[in-house]
Amino acid sequence: MPFTFHSHSGQFCKHGYGQLEETIQAAISKGMPIIGLTEHVPRWRAQDLYPEEQGLVPSDLEATFSAYVAEARQLQAKYQDKIEIVIGCESEYITQLDIAKAKDMQELYELDYIVGSVHHIDEIPMDFSAELYEQIVAKYNGDRVAVFQRYFELQYEMLQALQPTVVGHFDLVRIFHPQDQADPLLADAEVRALAERNIAYIVSYGGVVEVNSRAWKKGLRDAYPQRDLMQAILQRGGRITLSDDSHGSGDVAMHYNRLYAYLQEMHVEKVHCVRQGGRIEVFVGAMQDEFWAKNGLNK
């Protein structure tokens, strides 16, 4: 059974559900040999808190993150004979403060790795709701091409400053783009060039791009990244890993039957994993049919 290197729980994420231990138990029950835990780093300014966090202050998020790492280490020891647990975090990039703090948190808590993600455009959450996404579009006077350009510029800034081990949901900007309108990544040469520049940079420093199955929960055709960008990554020799971006135990291996088919269609030959200590290596056998057979994920 494959693995995931991007996961959350309701215990430490307000828009998740359930306990962190339940996520690990679900991974074990599905035969996962390894799992990466990546709760969000805190957001450090009061104006960056989500509506669901009403009544909290940034220091509350910092305390929650500290509690997450402590719990993760306890569970790592408890289940060490059943599954390898790799402890990391998922970044934010709202302002430069978030980059500096993410580096601080990785060092302070001796985290194995960071999933580098961009969830905001010009300080407005992009993936929290369709309504907030449209606020971003309105800020650009309805120019969705400009929104995509801005996203990939911000992503490039994050990549350069953080050089994350794993790059999260590479084309997340597609999440609420109307499917009856032209996709800027396919229709606009400048947007495409920005995305390909980012891919080239990830390859240059040795990063890994996750193939994130949560995109199907959002109604997209493919996992993140969509097939046009997957082809670009693979053509450049980019490294990939697997992710369900689970937000609770019921999401573990979500849509992995579709993920397997997608990887086959894209002719993926190698899948990478992150080990304790942050070492990246090929997971031998990850593209063999029997590795996906448990729970019928190869069907």
Which terms summarize this structure?
TIM Barrel; alpha/beta; two-stranded antiparallel sheet; 41% helix; 299 residues; single chain
Description:
The chain has a single domain, classed as TIM Barrel, CATH 3.20.20.140. About 40% of the residues lie in helices and about 10% in strands. The chain has about 300 residues and is of the alpha/beta class. The mean pLDDT is about 95. It has helices spanning about 20-30, 60-80, 95-110, 130-140, 145-160, 185, 190-205, 215, 225-235, 255-265, 290, and strands spanning about 35, 85-90, 115, 120, 125, 165, 210, 240-245, 270-275, 280. α5 (about 145-160) packs parallel to α7. The protein starts with 19 loop residues before the first helix and ends in a 7-residue tail after the last helix. The longest helix is centred in the first third of the chain and has 21 residues, at about 60-80. The strands form three sheets. A six-stranded parallel sheet has the order 1-2-3-6-7-8. Strands 4-5 form a two-stranded antiparallel sheet. A two-stranded antiparallel ribbon has the order 9-10. The chain has eleven helices and ten strands.
